[in-house]
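User: Fold this one for me? It's Glycosyltransferase.
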Amino acid sequence: MTHYGLLCPPTTGHLNPMLALGCELKQRGHQVTLFNILDTAAKAKAVEINFWPLGRKEFPLGTLGNFYDHLGTLRGLAAFQTTLNFRQQVWATVFLQEAPAAIQAAGVEALLVDHVIVAGGAIAERLSLPFVSLCSALLMQPDDSVPPFFAGWPYDPAPWTRLRNRFGHALLVQYWRMVHQPVNEYRQMWRSPLYLNPSDALSPLAQISHQPAEFEYPRQYLAPYFHFTGPFHSTVSRETVSFPFEKLTSQPLIYASMGTLRNRSHRVFEQIAAACVGLDAQLVIALGKGLAPEALGALPGDPIVVGYAPQLELLQRATLAITHAGLNTALESLQAGVPMVALPVTDDQPGVAARIEWTGAGEVVPKSRLTTARLRTAVQQVLTCETYKQNAVRLRQATAQAGGVTRAADIVERAIATGKPVLTQDFSKPKPEPCAPLFNSLPSC
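Assistant: Here's what I get for Glycosyltransferase.
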């Protein structure tokens, strides 16, 4: 059996899929250890995965909470810049300085590296360890045929859009190089070639995305060992969350969540509640970090408001999800066949929202144009037009056929056991059952 080390950002959207894959490997008899800051220890302990603390002095317990409190007050480019600055600090202080020695001391034999942890590939190369890249957000690899991940631009194969996309990717690469300068400084010290673009830091054995292929734009350039396996979501890798299920009625359920990070805006939750007043539906709002239910006071329509919710269980009951378009929540909604109304804020959320709209599985209301009236119109449209549900169900079928965490673990095991690239063509997902074309039934209601 193999001892796997896990390297990923300390945030929920990256930890959950990484720990789900770690749990699958652990159940297969492998040893698994998460290397991260102290604030992630509880999550590892909850799923009985080994934990090795890094950056105890620089990032004491409570660091993430303070960071989230600040981040929750920011929007757009400022929020994006703050997130990247924090990641740069973690990479330079924790992963590059401490992780190599810790990984060696723990006896790790292979690494699973989140694709935004650019230092992970450098560390694996430095220690001569095989590694597999896990993409838990939209792909960052430059490709002129699709918009960059941070843009909410719609997919369009027209020639002029390739110029627009090329410009966006060029900006991204320049920014990427600036933010990841600490990694290149270490690589220079280690006499390794410098990383010039996001693809350079990814595994040469296997790259795994927890998107289904059907939720990604048609890309021209992907590595021959790139795999779309669908989401890794599982209650096994989640902490238990209490919820007043007895308060749910027989009405259709609308589940609303703006994620766990950028959700400090009272106004957004008030607009969500007001937009759902008078509908034949029951609204549940999950606030995440930063806001307490009592801080909101009475909301229009008297929805159920909780700090945290058992999201996977509620989505199984939901008719509609109102979401910030974080990739994890979007995929969890589609895994349950639930259409969405997306209110993207920052990071890759505009890109995720654009894909929700492109697949016909929901509508988008940009934060810059958010009003109660616009949101209510979008909610009513998705609730009443059956085509949104049909497209969400088709994506649910595609997700089920993609293989999920089981197929991802199979790919990881083969890559590490053979030390050779696991080619997509040689490791295809099971042939899907015939179904109607996914994107030919856009809403006409």
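One thing worth pointing out: The radius of gyration is 21 Å.
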